[in-house]
């Protein structure tokens, strides 16, 4: 008998679903629904209505369940992946108080600095919980609500992250697992528990508003009867604890043992690895997250990846194929044109006041192809800034597995191999949604006595596109090493960025 597992990924631009047939080890259907951020907000504010996620989940689940057809009674589990750090504020009736502030919202940088100051500075903050506190983390969003919307903060009863909110809607249960919790900025990653010191720095009563923590390999509960009946499913469908999109994408790319690194190229970019021990960065550049399998997931997140390439592509009215051809027509290093793609701030390097800079414009580089190549390279330099920091902390990548839209570009894959100086290979399928489905399979199997490891499950289901594996070009790598040094130097001009932001605010 075939069993089926649904994986959901609640992203910034869309919600995706896959349905996995476990016996044949294949995805039999997928679906997605696109949506937008709330428009016309002040600079730095990035918000969405959680109701849009619910509507999208309904649509994609109905689509993939219909693809299963008469076998839908054999759907056994659902796993949820969600964009990390988003703040979903609920009242005591479980109703959403206001739109969710997202991971990419930098309007709370003042509150992030305020919390760090209350804790005694960055070094002390990292000592307390193993992480710094960039504006993207949830903690600063909560303090922002308290300081800017006190009437809404007075109604706050429960703090959830996007994937927790979908889990709550699916099951009626409010809980959080350690992987996603470690990105709130309220969590001690070494001890896998809430950090009371940080919580008190935000608000004395906040601890009571945080959900209970559950194990990463747990089920949060069974699917609610209303949804089970709506979708025509059996009465024993479990919903796994799930996790943040990076945690689920790690599973969905087979990144469940040391040596493998995943690079995810979407609106944002992430690079992360599996570690048996926490990797704590005293500088705070690397996020020392827990993963969703009981290990740790040292991670770099940059806010500007396809943001950069899409901005240039759309400005010149190019198709994706035309854009790639333009990039290919320019040599590695774009003849010295360098883009710092910090269009609305950046997280790594930590530069929330950052803006975009084209550096090296001259007659020979002042054209569309050079700007296209500089955008693709600049986004990759940002990721490599973090990868090099991981190397400094002892990580030794042997292979980088690619997921996300940027992985589809052949020229970009070569650029990544040359800048990262390690082989890169795309993973077949949607990493986060696939990881969520595999997580549900893992939790269901272990709940029924199989005790199968997550490594074994990933090895059986994850496929690599070996015909698209790329090795570094030594000549290009040498050029990029020099460009990377320049990128790193310019990125540290934080005082100049702050002065520029001050000028902009006065215009």
Describe the structure.
The chain has 507 residues and is an alpha/beta fold. Among the domains are: 242 residues, 2-Layer Sandwich (Nucleotidyltransferase, domain 5), CATH 3.30.420.40; 107 residues, 2-Layer Sandwich (Nucleotidyltransferase, domain 5), CATH 3.30.420.40. The chain is 40% helix and 19% strand. The protein contains 18 helices and 23 strands. The strands form 7 sheets. Strands 1, 2, 3, 5, 13, 14 and 15 form a 7-stranded mixed sheet that branches. Helix 12 packs across helix 13. It is globular and about 65 Å long. The N and C termini lie far apart (67 Å). The model has no long low-confidence stretch (mean pLDDT 94).
Q: For the CA atoms, what is the radius of gyration? A: 22 Å
CATH architecture label name of the domain at 4-245: 2-Layer Sandwich
Q: What is the overall shape?
A: globular
Query: How much strand content do the residues show?
Result: 15-25%
Q: Using the coordinates shown, work out and report the CATH topology of the domain at 4-245.
A: Nucleotidyltransferase, domain 5
Helix content: 25-40%
What profile does the largest beta sheet have? 7 strands, mixed
What's the arrangement of secondary structure elements?
Elements: E1 4-10, E2 14-21, E3 26-34, E4 47-48, H1 50-68, E5 75-82, E6 88-90, E7 100-101, H2 109-119, H3 122-129, H4 138-148, H5 150-155, E8 158-160, H6 162-171, E9 176-177, H7 178-181, E10 187-188, E11 193-194, H8 196-202, E12 213-214, E13 219-222, H9 225-231, E14 238-240, E15 243-244, H10 245-252, E16 260-265, E17 269-273, E18 287-290, E19 296-302, H11 306-315, H12 320-328, E20 338-341, E21 356-359, H13 368-392, E22 399-403, H14 410-420, E23 424-426, H15 431-447, H16 454-461, H17 474-491, H18 494-505
Parallel strand pairs: 1-5, 5-14, 5-15, 9-12, 16-22, 22-23
Antiparallel strand pairs: 1-2, 2-3, 4-7, 6-8, 10-11, 13-14, 16-17, 17-19, 18-19, 20-21
Helix pairs in contact: 2-4, 2-8, 10-15, 11-13, 12-13, 13-14, 13-17, 14-17, 15-16
